[in-house]
Design brief:
Elements lengths: L1 H24 L1 H6 L22 E5 L10 E2 L7 H13 L4 E7 L4 E7 L6 E11 L3 E10 L8 H16 L5
Parallel strand pairs: 1-2
Antiparallel strand pairs: 1-6, 3-4, 4-5, 5-6
Helix pairs in contact: 3-4
Length: 172
């Protein structure tokens, strides 16, 4: 009985320490203890998906060798114009920070944090010109922490693409 009580007290102390860390340090500093929140750039052409289910990919078939979760659509705008429309999508999203923006490469990288605990996810977006003034894009979203994201990365990409379709209607 004393062992069970000691374990219970130990767990309560640990939980209290975690709560205090979040209050005193804030979630961004706490999660940084597990590594940088920005997981860095990716090459869509060379991308290899994670073995854990905590990432999601939307990509044109002719760009990514990795299997995509979401089919990338064509848009009736040049890649630079599509990137500007996508910036409006990002501006409408909560808790998003731009980590890198490369106009020459038409690539942007963001971190979006979850609402309550501030878990960081890194999202890389690249825009591609297509013939006849059209364009498409690739989006790779991945979590820094956890084995599973419960579908959050895929839901994010779907939400962002839905918002983008309000700005620029995809080609059917």
């Amino acid at each position: 009985m004393k062992i069970v009580a000691a374990i219970g007290i130990g767990l309560m102390l640990l939980a209290t320490a975690v709560v205090l860390a979040f209050v005193l340090m804030g979630p961004e500093r706490v999660w940084r203890l597990f590594g940088e929140p920005d997981l860095g750039p990716v090459s869509f052409e060379q991308l290899e998906r994670r073995t854990s289910p905590n990432d999601a990919l939307a990509c044109p078939e002719d760009v990514c060798k990795a299997p995509a979760d979401i089919k990338a659509m064509l848009y009736p705008a040049a890649a630079r114009e599509l990137r500007i429309a996508f910036a409006k999508v990002i501006a409408s999203e909560p808790r998003v920070t731009t980590v890198d923006s490369n106009a020459a490469m038409l690539t942007d990288r963001y971190i979006q944090r979850t609402g309550r605990l501030g878990f960081p996810d890194t999202i890389v977006v690249k825009f591609f010109d297509r013939p006849d003034g059209q364009s498409t894009l690739a989006i790779y979203s991945r979590s820094q922490l956890g084995e599973s994201d419960l579908g959050a990365n895929k839901a994010r990409i779907e939400r962002w693409l839905s918002k983008l379709a309000e700005q620029v209607q995809p080609v059917e």
